[in-house]
Amino acid sequence: MIKAIYDHLKANNLNPYFIGQHQGECTERYCVIKENSQVPYFNSNQIGYKTIDIILFLPLNSYIQVEPYVKEIRSAMKELSNLRKTGNETPIITDDTKKAYTMSIEYQILKKLEG
After folding, report:
1. Which of 2, 8, 73, 100 is positioned for an S-S bond with 26, CB 3.0–4.6 A?
2. DSSP secondary-structure letter at 13?
3. Secondary structure (3-state) at 22
4. Distances in Å between the alpha carbon of 38 and those of 35, 45, 110, 113?
5. CA–CA dist 48, 80 (Å, integer)
6. Is the pTM of this model over 0.85?
7. In degrees rounded to 5, what are phi and psi of residue 33?
8. Distance between CA atoms of 115 and 112, rounded to whole angstroms?
9. What is the tens place of the pLDDT at every residue in 70-101?
């Protein structure tokens, strides 16, 4: 599913990267796809979900572009059928290393548990 998310964001010109791929300072908007925990549903070891963070980065000179980029990400992610937005979003903060504004949006991938 992570590859499908990447491909979908790429097809929508949202400049995705996997975690650890982007190098250097932020000179253009991009997002990073980060897998998080897998969690079973209560009383089940068969079905559950995995959380995914979409972490957005925009150059420090473009604060007013953060919200439009967030809306583009949300819109593209809505088109993926087995994802659900959790409602968790971090506030916009600065990343001094990347010289960027950053925030994240959390999603759940509904899935059958493996193993």
Report:
1. 100
2. T
3. coil
4. 9, 11, 10, 8
5. 18
6. yes
7. -95, 120
8. 10
9. 999 999 999 998 888 999 999 999 999 999 99
Amino acid at 15: N
Q: How far is CA 30 from the centre of its chain?
A: 10
Domains of the chain and CATH, by start? 2-112 (3.30.2000.10)
Amino acid letter for position 45: N
Q: Largest alpha-carbon pair distance within the chain?
A: 49
3-state secondary structure the chain: CHHHHHHHHHHCCCCEEECCCCCCCCCCCEEEEEEEEEEECCCCCCEEEEEEEEEEEEECCCHHHHHHHHHHHHHHHHCCCCEEEEEEECCCEEECCCCEEEEEEEEEEEEECCC
